[in-house]
Amino acid sequence: MSLFEINNVSKSFGDLTVLHDISVKVEEGEVVAIIGPSGSGKSTLLRCATMLETMDKGSLLYLGETAAHNNAEGNTVYASAADLRRIKGYFGLVFQNFNLFPHFSVLRNLTEAPIHVQKRGREEVEAEAREMLRKMGLEGKEDNYPQQLSGGQQQRVAIARALTMNPRMLFFDEPTSALDPELTGEILKVIRQLAQEKMTMVIVTHEMAFARDVADRVIFMDGGYIVEEGRPEDVITNPREERTKQFLARFAGQGSIDE
Amino acid sequence: MGFMSIVQQIIGGFGTTLFIFFFTLLFSLPLGILFALARMSKFKPLNWFMQVCISILRGTPLMLQLIVVFFMPFYVFGIKLSAGWRVYAALIGFSINYAAYFGEIFRAGIEGVPVGQHEAAEVLGFTRAQTFWKIVFPQMVKRVIPPVTNEVITLVKDTSMAFAIAYVEMFTLAKQVAAQQSSITPLFVAGLFYYVFNFVVAWAMGRLEKRLSYFE
Q: Cβ A52–B124 below 8 Å, yes or no?
């Protein structure tokens, strides 16, 4: 049983089809990087996986539990609100623009959902949140507000916020795209650390060198299709498809990531 | 009649003005949130109904609305109007009218909260009610303080409209005193009261805005 499974998903916005019959499975402990040009559908795929966007066709499963399936006509039907609420607890999402709650302190950004959604005890959650912040190198920032932090710090708070929910897996939607180049390294380092701890992750990214280093599997998307998929040394270093080669040629100058 | 006795008489009316002001705010601010939510409802009939209500409340004179509320029990239900009804009619009329304006301000404030805030809350599993009260509402409050300040200041001056249903507040009283004395001094004194009160309101709202500047 896969931890995450999205099968034959199709999605259109009006006349524009952004996902064509795409399927992705992710196993426990796996790190999957999704790469591709803008408009390739990779963010939409992530938004369908995290249920921020509804699928037109296709099914979605977490730990074998059905969040969405196809009905007899082949259209997606979602599970009940109660089932979806439980299933949403299995994953966390880190946004490109962090989306921290600006009116909450750093600590409260982490603790609000575990206390009020998961109904866990405040003391236990706060202790865990402090530990998480320490791990993210944000010790002493508990009482700060998001706007007082740098972009890199804000994104680390966002990762800590997702982790404090104790999810089984994490999705990242271009987690370094809104950051200054000198700040991307600190985020990549955190993700690398999570990978070493065997956190299951799906990362949409433009950082090719990073994807090659950290991912177990790379998916290259273009025009709403999966063009190529496989081990990073195959897809990124020796791509088979012409379209993948064209895309990667633009990143040819990019070396390893500084940390 | 000396200046001090004029001031004393007007202070009596000022109490009524304050009374209308505070109770109108007390009722119209929460009602404005309800109006805003109804106005943004995905349930179309409610949405349209609220649009029509807001359109009428903003498109007709407040004075007329006060008169309609005041005489409604008599003309619609045939109930004889009691002396105490005047106060309630004034508060109902003012509150509903101001709720329409506040509702539109709140709606703009709610819609101004970035969609990413809703999405982050959704992914974390917050219910719709939790998302509204914990995430959207506090950010909306901060956004709407400047336009709400405008409305509150207007309300201070609009309380004088209560004269339409013969509810004697400060301005009506000032006019009466001015007529008795054949002097415009009472009107100036009333004007000074309005100004000082609004100065305090603007100052208080400015303080509130500053207190909320810890987040962007």
A: no
